[in-house]
Amino acid sequence: MAILEKYRIPLIRDTINAEDLKKLSQWLLENPRLTKGPLTKKFEEEWSRWNGNKYSVFVNSGSSANLLMVYALLAAGKLKNKKAIVPAISWVTTVAPFMQFSLDPLLCDCDEKNLGLNLEHFEKLCREERPAVAILVHVLAHPNHLDQILEICRKYDVILLEDCCEAHGSQYRGKKVGTFGLMGSFSFYFGHHMSTIEGGMVVTDEEELYNVLLSLRSHGWARDLQPEYAKRFKEKYGIDDFRDRYVFYYPGFNLRSADVNAFLGLEQLKRLDEIVQKRFANYLRYKKNLESHCWVQESEGNPLSAFAFGQVADNLLETVALLEKNSIETRPLICGSIGEQPFWIEKYGKQILPNATKIHHHGFYIPCYQDLKEEEIDEVSDLLIKSKKA
Fold first, then answer.
1. Which residues constitute the domain of residue 370?
2. Number of domain units in the chain
3. Using CA atoms, how far apart are residues 335 and 311, in angstroms rounded to an integer?
4. Does 208 fall in a domain?
């Protein structure tokens, strides 16, 4: 897809290519259904197969996926209290649903190396606050310390959610992210590992929760439910056939995506494994170039579908200026620390967490998309080393 690029080496490039658009054009000429229909279901099934989950629910964004996950826990009566652990290094819509649904978010500091949940702080929060739920983010596709986090969750009876919006295809000890928590979320927005223009996915292995997600996605009705669940609702409330399609069992949303988006998802999914491997190779080249000179984000991700390459620099502004001068795009590392964002400060006050605060003031990331050339990686690496020595 053609876009105007300000930079010689941009942070991202679109994954929707000319062949995708050609196939989409041919499909559109067949006068297909464009709204949610059979291709949406097919895309959900193919995604479940690819990622290793039993169930997937296609929605209109990764942010909507997070919103749906959190409200599904409430609607299904799964929360023992209103306390929720959220990661300091994350995105606003990872945290916002807990605030929007009047839960009590507890901010957890980040790990010094993978930038996920800090194990010591996470266990301290679980021990002292006894929360009902925790959500983690696999920052720039680096898996958290999942074995230890799951053990802590079991110890303190905490539900775990995974925000995998930057991590499609990353694996931790042989399992893909999104298969560890009760639910996981993915984003298919422009610049991610694959794109449906706008789109997201919720994954889970729990059948009852899957049906709650399906209902909440579409207004709270039962049309999309598995037959036995739809029948159960109908019999419980004595609904006749005439009214059945317009009865609402939950105060739901309209978070649906559409078949036109699912068409692109199915095409992109065919090459997602290749994209993951290219991003992993890019990460490894950066790491080899930089690990003797700069801080390098590290994890047990193998493969690691690097969303970008994270960096920390004491001379942040000078480093960014050098990259900009050479027409290389960069940006803050996600959005820095949530505890220092205005929306958090207004409600809870500024929250200083040592590791997250360092990322907030010194963190940034550089390009790592699948079409990046080796010589471009080497050029960016050389500039970072030059800046470090300055």
1. 273-389
2. 2
3. 14
4. yes
